[in-house]
From TrEMBL:
Short name of one Pfam family: CobA_CobO_BtuR
Keyword Transferase: yes
Top-level EC class as recorded in UniProt: transferase
Entries under InterPro entries matching the protein: CblAdoTrfase_CobA, P-loop_NTPase
Domain of life of the native organism: Bacteria
Lineage of producing organism: Bacteria, Bacillati, Actinomycetota, Actinomycetes, Mycobacteriales
Name by which UniProt lists this protein: Cob(I)yrinic acid a,c-diamide adenosyltransferase
Chain's gene name: cobO
């Protein structure tokens, strides 16, 4: 894409503006570091454009508060106070979804993942958010907790103008086929290879 120009222009009867503004399904996969980081960076960019942001973390423990969560929640509060940017919701599966009345740690991870996906489906139908970050969503799909065919059908047929970005290793080929943008993060070197654990400001 030299100078940001597409290599081909499809014969789809759309104007340049219409084609540019189509909602995207994006997948960040691969064994390398940076999948979630890139998705949260996209959320920051969307917030600046006034997007309604919804983050749904399917594997992260509720006890592990990543730095991006603090930043985006503060930006959500700023929106509430001043109208700047857009609203932000952040939900984790680790202690039961925040809309659920269940307390404590999740005992049935498969059931909780299904509950999270059902909530996302409803939000997609209601066009609640402009950008959905489904963080580490490839894992419950791969483990059979969420049906891949339902995921592909729902995301392919979502109404309105809703962007979705999914992160996680080993993305299902059907998800990759349905996506508009797929990035594979490849690991070449990592500090853990030399025995170094994660550190503040880099991993969280």
């Amino acid at each position: 894409m030299p100078q940001g120009q597409p290599l081909t222009v499809p014969d789809d009867n759309l104007t340049t503006r219409q084609r540019r503004n189509r909602p995207l399904l994006m997948v960040h996969t691969g064994d390398g570091k940076g999948k979630s980081t890139a998705a949260f960076g996209l959320a920051l960019r969307g917030w600046n454009q006034g997007f309604r942001i919804g983050v749904f973390q399917f594997v992260k423990s509720a006890k592990w508060r990543v730095g991006e969560q603090s930043v985006l929640e503060r930006l959500g509060a700023l929106h509430t106070e001043t109208g700047e940017g857009g609203p932000v919701e952040w939900h984790k599966m680790g202690s039961g979804w925040s809309w659920s009345r269940k307390a404590g740690d999740v005992e049935d991870h498969a059931g909780d993942a299904a509950e999270g996906w059902a909530q996302i489906k409803q939000r997609l139908a209601d066009q609640t958010h402009d950008l959905y970050v489904l963080d580490e969503f490839t894992y419950p799909i791969n483990w059979g907790w969420v049906d891949i065919d339902d995921v592909v059908q729902t995301l392919t047929n979502r109404p309105g103008h809703q962007h979705v970005v999914i992160t996680g290793r080993r993305a299902d080929p059907r998800l990759i086929e349905a996506a508009d943008l797929v990035t594979e993060m490849g690991k070449i070197k990592h500090p853990m290879d030399a025995g170094q654990k994660g550190q503040r400001g880099i991993e969280w």
